[in-house]
Amino acid sequence: MSGSDQSVVGQQGAGALVVVPTFNERENLPLITERLFTSLGDVHLLIVDDSSPDGTGEVADALAADDAADRIHVLHRTAKDGLGKAYLAGFAWGLDRDYRVIVEMDADGSHAPEQLHRLLAAINDGADLVIGSRYVPGGALVNWPKRRELLSKGANTYARIALGVKVNDITAGYRAFRREVLETIGLDRVESAGYCFQIDLAWRTLQNGFTIREVPITFTERAIGESKMDGGVIAESFINVARWGVQGRLAKLRR
Ligand SMILES: Nc1nc2c(ncn2[C@@H]2O[C@H](COP(=O)(O)OP(=O)(O)O[C@H]3O[C@H](CO)[C@@H](O)[C@H](O)[C@@H]3O)[C@@H](O)[C@H]2O)c(=O)[nH]1
């Protein structure tokens, strides 16, 4: 880990930690870092690397060492352990410090740092969890393979019906949390290791009485490297969502 602990001062990004999980993103990481700090100079960045074989962790360390403003931090984990686990480790790191807002963002450029101000503005406006949504008016997909789009829309429809929630893009990975949401949910209660983690957190956010607001974003398919989505991720989502749906309905019946 590098960099020192400090709260951030400034305007829109003040007190915000952007958590970026990485696995084999050596070429993407410098590009997204540059774009992030060009867009919002007063956020902090935490890179959570799972010992990427391509040397992403060393690239992250070099970026942290070169940042004179000490805004970049790196968490090195020993093995690839899933997107959800990487985020939870990053959130725990952020909650241990003074950050007011914790952001999720991919390393591959799918989530434009230039649109982060939209998420932070909604937090400043009182939302508890803000989802950068592809499926609200103004949201868009660029170059995403048709099969990924169908999978994503299918997963969203399934989750909406099974859980009885109204979120349009509950699988989205571009998000901003007010720190109280994560503190109240309790990170150790989150059950999903993979991408189902996104649904898991949104579901628990609502169950704990917090609000979710969706703001439109443009999701652009990565130009470099490849997705780490696999069959295990899909199976975990299917099973967990079904289980939460049944639990939620039983709890309602008992009331
Ligand atoms: N540390 C770590 N990082 C990981 C791991 N798996 C993936 N990542 C990182 O997590 C980010 C997203 O992974 P991708 O594999 O590129 O995601 P995607 O298929 O494009 O999926 C995106 O869209 C989904 C919604 O449809 C989202 O659910 C998902 O979060 C993500 O935003 C990238 O920065 C990638 O390096 C892991 O096991 N460990």
Structural summary, described in words:
Helix 1 (28-39) links the parallel strand 1 and strand 2. The protein has one domain (16-254): Spore Coat Polysaccharide Biosynthesis Protein SpsA, Chain A, CATH 3.90.550.10. The chain has helices spanning 28-39, 56-66, 83-95, 116-124, 146-163, 179-185, 197-207, 231-254; strands at residues 16-22, 44-49, 72-76, 101-104, 129-133, 140-142, 175-178, 212-216, 218-220. The chain contains eight helices and nine strands. Helices cover 41% and strands 16% of the residues. Helix 5 runs parallel beside helix 8. It has 255 residues and is of the alpha/beta class. The N and C termini lie far apart (47 Å). The longest helix has 24 residues, at 231-254. Bound molecules: guanosine-5'-diphosphate-alpha-D-mannose (GDD). It catalyses: a di-trans,poly-cis-dolichyl phosphate + GDP-alpha-D-mannose = a di-trans,poly-cis-dolichyl beta-D-mannosyl phosphate + GDP. Keywords: Glycosyltransferase, Transferase. This is dolichyl-phosphate beta-D-mannosyltransferase. Residues 18-185 form the Glycosyltransferase 2-like domain.
